[in-house]
Design brief:
With 252 residues, the protein is an alpha/beta fold. The protein is built from eight helices and eleven strands. Helices cover 24% and strands 37% of the residues. It has a seven-stranded mixed sheet with strand order 7-6-5-8-9-11-10.
Length: 252
């Protein structure tokens, strides 16, 4: 007999109590994995279509081979693993602020953990993605082919108020410094396409698109949707070489 709820891990973190649990979902008759932060549900293995589409849509917009990809937010691992399934990816770095989440995968507690951590292309880093984006890039001559971000609920609804500055034009320009020329930024959102955010996105990037990703919701019996934003850096190779130079108001 399968226990209805099984708590796999609980840890106190700087942004609240983090819980990983496994339970039986009657609507689908199978075990699912859920993550909660305090009383708030963050993610579920029942709904992974849009998380995987974040990688698929983002990488579909990237030209070339030998891709270096940065994922902001590890979570249950579905975005990272979807990126690894693109054979053009030669290196995948995943940044998560919470060491507990990285530990779940290192302990192989989740369905895709083994596929993620056993792949030699994978590097898991405990760090604040948003602080990293504010700082000057280390590899200024190359940059990432793609940056895939899934941390906040949406540009308007952040898990932490300190994240808000990334979603305006100045914050997006700081992130853009970490991309290779013609590199792609892709962002998951739980909200419908946001016209105000699109204005900020198009001020910095080219070819900005808000993809609506529909998926079947077995719990409600209907269709749910998320948004995946995809945009391309307009910087040239010469501009990329100057990306390390700190600007007024930015961290050196």
């Amino acid at each position: 007999m399968i226990t209805r709820f099984e708590e796999l891990d609980w840890q106190s973190t700087p942004i609240g109590d983090l819980t990983l649990r496994r339970r039986t979902e009657p609507a689908v008759g199978q075990e699912i994995y859920e993550v909660k932060l305090g009383d708030e549900y963050l993610m579920s293995s029942l709904f992974t279509v849009a998380e995987e589409e974040l990688a698929d849509l983002g990488l579909a917009a990237v030209d070339g081979d030998n891709l270096s990809v940065l994922v902001g937010g590890l979570g249950l691992g579905y975005t990272a693993v979807a990126a690894l399934r693109d054979e053009r990816v030669s290196a995948l770095t995943v940044i998560d602020r919470l060491g507990a989440v990285i530990g779940w995968h290192e302990r192989k507690l989740l369905p895709v953990s083994a596929e993620l951590v056993d792949d030699p292309r994978t590097t898991l880093l405990e760090d604040d993605f948003f602080a990293v984006m504010r700082s000057a890039p280390v590899e200024v001559r190359t940059g990432y082919s793609a940056i895939l971000l899934d941390v906040d609920h949406s540009p308007r609804h952040q898990l932490d108020a300190t994240h808000a500055d990334l979603y305006d034009a100045a914050g997006l320009r700081a992130l853009d410094r970490h991309l290779a020329p013609d590199g792609v930024f892709a962002l998951w959102s739980d909200d419908p396409p946001d016209e105000e955010f699109m204005v900020e996105l198009t001020a910095v990037f080219d070819d900005a698109v808000a993809h609506v990703v529909d998926f079947e919701n077995a719990v409600t019996g209907g269709t749910s949707s998320n948004t995946v934003y995809v945009a391309r850096s307009r910087r040239t190779g010469a501009e990329a070489l100057d990306a390390s130079a700190p600007h007024a108001g930015e961290d050196a």
